Amino acid sequence: MNILFDINHPAHVHLFKNAIQILQRKGHHVIVTSRDKDITLKLLDNYHIKHVLLSRAQKGLIRLGLELIWRQWKLLGLLLRNKVQICISVTGACNVHICKILNIPTLVFYDTEHADLQNKLTLPFVTEFISPEYFTERWGKKHKTYNGVHDLAYLHPHYFKASDKIYSLLGLKQKEPFVILRFVSWEAAHDIGHQGISTVLKRKIIELCSRYAKVFIAFEGKIDDEFEPYKFPIAPERMHDALAHALLYIGEGGSMATEAAVAGTPSLFISTLTAGVFDEYEKNYQLMFSFRPDQIDDILAKIQSLLTTKNIKDVWAKRKNKFISDKLDLTEYMVDKILSYQS
Question: Is residue 191 scored above 70 in pLDDT?
């Protein structure tokens, strides 16, 4: 088959990388299109995934709309030249319209309910909209669900084993405790109208965590000068190793919050955003905790409690293992779903 993966965000690289490699090993022709956003291109290059750059991420609804049109125009020639038979993506926003015109099937693997405008513009044109069964909305016959989460496409034990080398890469002694914080730019289309951690709360969190562990901060976008000393110092493809060994994750990034949880690390997600998949991690498995940014006292109390709980990583390892045993291998599911379109 001639299969195209449209990748627009760093998280999409992780989601699809194993499926891409498996399909290539099976002898299929895989084309990857990319978008210059944050570390997307760096991840693709570091994972040795060849890709065609279609656009650079824009800010604001008007610029995002123009970028969308430009991407689909560039995609048109690529689809025709490569005789693409199926297109795979996360949001579908950048490919489903042109694929619909060309009668090319599109599979969208998505888990974010709050991207309401994006979903309304995309879903009428999708062949299959595929989400975790915890997705709180339903979109008719084309909406398919599975018992799993995006994180298990790449953090399932079939594909991931955390390396102990992370300590030396971070300049730490073996088993020295560290905490990872994540601050985002709040410039994505689905972030409009939402907010995260204030500068005042960031300072309080750093001060509290520094009493118990080394603090590292992973930033999306420009880093504030005062937080520069805490900047995460290693290559982005090693982030999952770091999340697995960290004592605690705290941040505004929902993807990283669930990644930390499934890697066996207590996770605090601080945002006004909500999603059904967060409830699955939090309410059914107690692997993560969600707070609004204005719940300052509750946030600091939970951090204090987690940092002072004895053998907390052992507790989370048991919860993580239960979670994984209950869910399917998403990469395996994804490959089978794509190949079901083979004529």
Answer: no
CATH homologous superfamily for the domain 2-148+328-339 = Glycogen Phosphorylase B; (3.40.50.2000)
Question: CA 233, CA 225: separation in Å to the nearest integer?
Answer: 15
Task: Encode 159-189: b = buried (16+ Cβ within 10 Å), e = exposed.
Answer: bbebeeebbeebebeeeebbbbbbbbeeebb
Model confidence pLDDT, tens digit, residues 128-167: 999 999 887 787 899 999 999 999 999 999 999 999 999 9
- Name the pTM for this structure: 0.88
**Residues 214-243: tens digit of each pLDDT:** 999 988 767 788 999 999 988 888 999 999
Residue 185 near residue 283, CB atoms below 8 Å: no
Nearest to 133 by CA among 339, 286, 343, 333: 333
The CATH number that domain 166-326 falls under is 3.40.50.2000
pLDDT of residue 185: 58
Rounded distance, CA 35 to CA 55, Å? Answer: 5
The full set of domain ranges for the chain reads 2-148+328-339, 166-326
